[in-house]
Amino acid sequence: MARPLKNLCQVAVIGGGLAGLAAARHAARLGRLVTLFESSGMYGGQLATVDHVDGLPVPGAFSGQDLAISLLEDARKVGVQVIEAQIDKLEAGTRLTLTDWEGNFHHPEAVIVASGASLRKLGVPGEEQFTGRGVSRCASCDGGFYRAMDVVVAGGGDAAVHEALVLARMSREVIMVCRSPLSAQREYINRLDARENVRFVWDSEVVEVTGEMKVSGVRVRNVRTGAETEIAAAGVFPFIGVEPNTAFLPAAMRTESGHVASTDPRIIAAGAVRAEYGGKAVQAMAEGVSAAEAAHRALS
Ligand SMILES: Cc1cc2nc3c(=O)[nH]c(=O)nc-3n(C[C@H](O)[C@H](O)[C@H](O)COP(=O)(O)OP(=O)(O)OC[C@H]3O[C@@H](n4cnc5c(N)ncnc54)[C@H](O)[C@@H]3O)c2cc1C
Q1: 66 has catalytic annotation
Q2: Ligand 1 pocket mutation, candidates 46, 81, 99, 120, criterion most atoms within 8 A of CB
Q3: 279 pocket-lining for ligand 1 (C-beta < 6 Å)
Q4: 141 in catalytic set
C-alpha cells in the first residue's frame, strides 16, 4: 500500500551516531515514516574514526565505520529518509517544530534526540592554534604522523586509554597526563600495563600546548602542588570527557550538565545525550531501539 506523502517526517531522529541509526532503522521497521538528520556527514558519531570497536556482543572485528554504514544502508532499505543537515532548534508546542541550519521547518509527530556528545576541549592556550598541526582527537587517523615520536594523551577514561593503546603501537613513547587515577575499564588498563612505551604523569593537567609552527610539547601543572613542568612531544591527543550536544533544545529541556530532560512523551532521548547513558556502543544501539519503541507507542 502506498504511504501518505503528507508528512514524510512522522518520526524525526536527530543524530546519525549508533543510537540514532539504530533508532531510525527500528522505527521504520515498526512502520513509521522516519527522517534522520545528521550534521557532520560522517555517520557513526564518536565511533566514526575508531578502527576496532571493543565490547560488542558479537564475534568478529568491526570498525565504527563498518557498523555505521551497515546500519545506515539497512535504515535506507527500510525507507528511512536521510538528510545531511544540522538541527538548530527544537520547539515543542502543540506541534513539534524542528528548524535545520538552512532555515527549513520540519513537523514530526515524535522526535528521537540522539545527538550524542562531543569531545571536551582542554580550553588552554595553543589548543586551537595547533589543531591539525599536532593536536588531534583521532589516534587511528593521525597516529601514523607520529611514528617513532613521543605523544601526549590527556585524560584517563575509556576513550583516552583506547586511543593511547592505538598510539602505543606506533609512537616511541606515549605520555599519559592524568588528573586522577585511571577510570577506564579494567581490560583496557591491563592492556596498557603490558605496554613498555607508556608512562604516566599523575595528578596533572595540561595548561598549555607549546610550539611554533607545530606542536613541540605541553606545559603541565601538578594539581596538588601547583608545580609546572614541560614535556616535549610531537602530538597531543586530548580525551578529557565529553559534553552533550543539546544546544538546539529549549533550556527547560536540558539539565544543568546539558543532558536531555524531557517529560514530553513525543520527545525521547537515546544514547550519549542522556545523563544515565552507560557509555558503550552496544548500549547506544539498544537505547536507540527502545526510543523507537517509545516513539511508536507515543504515536499509537
Ligand atoms: C575515541 C573513542 C573510542 C571509543 N571506543 C569505544 C569502543 O571501542 N567500544 C564502545 O562500546 N564504545 C566506545 N566509545 C564510546 C562510543 O563511541 C559512544 O558511547 C557511542 O558512539 C555514543 O553513540 P551516540 O549515537 O549516542 O552518540 P554520538 O556517537 O556522539 O553520535 C551523535 C551524532 O549526532 C550528530 N549530531 C549532533 N548534533 C546534531 C544536530 N544538532 N543535528 C544533527 N546531527 C547532530 C553528531 O554529528 C553525531 O554523528 C568510544 C568513544 C570514543 C570517543
Answers
A1: no
A2: 46
A3: yes
A4: yes
- Tell how far the Cα of 65 is from the centroid of ligand 1, in angstroms: 12
Question: Distance between CA 112 and CA 102 in Å, rounded?
Answer: 21
CA of 96 to the centre of ligand 1 (A): 25
- What does the alpha-carbon distance between residue 84 and residue 42 come to, in Å, rounded to a whole number? 9
pLDDT block averages, 10 residues each, the chain of length 300? 56 98 98 97 93 91 95 97 97 95 95 97 97 95 95 97 96 98 95 96 98 97 98 98 97 97 96 96 97 96
Sign (positive or negative) of CA dihedral 110, 116, 118, 120: positive
Catalytic, 142? Answer: yes
Rounded distance between C-alpha atoms, residue 130 and residue 286, angstroms: 38
Dihedral of the alpha carbons of 101, 296, 282, 139, in degrees to the nearest 10: -10
Report the separation in Å between the CA atom of 38 and the middle of ligand 1, taken as the mean of its atom positions. Answer: 12
Determine the distance separating the centroid of ligand 1 and the alpha carbon of 151, expressed in angstroms: 24
Q: Which ligand 1 atom is at minimum distance from the Cα of 118?
A: 30
Domains of the chain: 11-118+242-299 (3.50.50.60), 139-238 (3.50.50.60)
The pLDDT of residue 41? 87
The residues, ordered by sequence, that sit 6+ positions from 274 with a Cβ below 8 Å of its Cβ are 259, 260, 287
Angle, helix 64-77 to helix 281-299, in steps of 10 degrees: 20
- Residue 40 corresponds to which cell in the numbers above? 557532520
**What pLDDT, on the 0 to 100 scale, is given for residue 7?**
57
d(CA 96, CA 253): 14
Query: Which cell numbers in the block locate residue 49?
Result: 574514526
- Cα–Cα distance between 117 and 249 in angstroms, integer? 14
* Cβ of residue 258 lying under 6 Å from some atom of ligand 1: no
Ligand 1 pocket check for 34: Cβ under 6 Å: no
